[in-house]
Amino acid sequence: DIQMTQSPSTLSASVGDRVTITCRASQSISSWLAWYQQKPGKAPKLLIYKASSLESGVPSRFSGSGSGTEFTLTISSLQPDDFATYYCQSRETFGQGTKVEIK
Amino acid sequence: EVQLVESGGGLVKPGGSLRLSCAASGFTFSNAWMSWVRQAPGKGLEWVGRIKSKTDGGTTDYAAPVKGRFTISRDDSKNTLYLQMNTLKTEDTAVYYCTTAQTTVTTRGDFWYFDLWGRGTLVTVSS
Known about the structure:
The structure holds 2 protein chains of 2 kinds.
Chain A: E1 4-7, E2 10-13, E3 19-25, E4 34-38, E5 45-49, E6 53-54, E7 62-67, E8 70-75, E9 85-90, E10 93-94, E11 98-102
Parallel strand pairs in A: 2-11
Antiparallel strand pairs in A: 1-3, 3-8, 4-5, 4-9, 5-6, 7-8, 9-10, 9-11
Chain B: E1 3-7, E2 10-12, E3 18-25, E4 34-39, E5 45-51, E6 60-62, E7 70-75, E8 80-85, E9 94-106, E10 109-117, E11 121-125
Parallel strand pairs in B: 2-11
Antiparallel strand pairs in B: 1-3, 3-8, 4-5, 4-9, 5-6, 7-8, 9-10, 9-11
């Protein structure tokens, strides 16, 4: 199975900050990577698929990049609604999650 | 409205069984490849298994921790997905989510992502 490693595990940031989360795959997955946002008590929400395609309805401040084994999720200007946990995923494997907290 | 609604969760003793249901609406369920994903309390997301559409064979795949104990099935006439869970263990305690799995078949295998999620149903395995 593919292993997915996210970093950092926790990130403290302020409203307006540019935030970057990294996900590394144990083997090349081309562009087959998705990103999700999850808030406490809620189901995950798809943000990005195929590494850089923005899901319909997701704000344009979210963007994804990368291919092969290294991927990033960027939030260009952090908004109050963005404080949540973010997961990457490819095939059957999810990353361990990155919690974005208020600084 | 496009949605998935899970039901059937609850408290069950170790070794017991439970069947979860997921009612789909607002899209052509029979064409969809479906998955179950779970999340133990305070933990990350874990894929449980998937079922292909009947036109694509209707076959199932499972994660190693549940293989041989859990069975995924579907009733396209009722737009419903099921997860039969047998020989439950305390480590199966989790919120179980029903999802659609957008899948691309490549020469290197299938790759998928989960675009539609239900709200989840809590399964607690405890004596």
